[in-house]
Amino acid sequence: FVIHACIDTASKISTNDWKGKKVVLFSVSGAFTPTCHTNHLPPYLAKHAEFKAKGLDVIAVVAANDLFVMSGWARFEGCKDKV
């Protein structure tokens, strides 16, 4: 499937781009929702270096929100190139 990238909203990401890579893809019900905002995303950000050290290539999250909300959430959370 193809999705819009949140950091660069002009870019699209296809699961084909991940062929041969180690990927963690998780979903949340919504950006900025209390549980997702405080319990679901932060552990992935906190363990980013640990995942990379173990050979993980990509950590990605999807939600029901549009790309503009997801982009705002990514900036607010400091995702940058981590998720």
From TrEMBL:
Residues 10-78 form the Redoxin domain. Pfam families: Redoxin. GO terms for biological process: cell redox homeostasis; cellular response to oxidative stress; hydrogen peroxide catabolic process. One of its GO terms (molecular function) is thioredoxin peroxidase activity. Keywords: Antioxidant, Oxidoreductase, Peroxidase, Redox-active center. GO terms for cellular component: mitochondrion; peroxisome. The active site is at 36 (cysteine sulfenic acid (-soh) intermediate). The keyword Oxidoreductase applies. The keyword Acyltransferase does not apply. Belongs to the peroxiredoxin family. Prx5 subfamily. This is Redoxin. The lineage of its organism: Eukaryota, Fungi, Dikarya, Basidiomycota, Agaricomycotina.
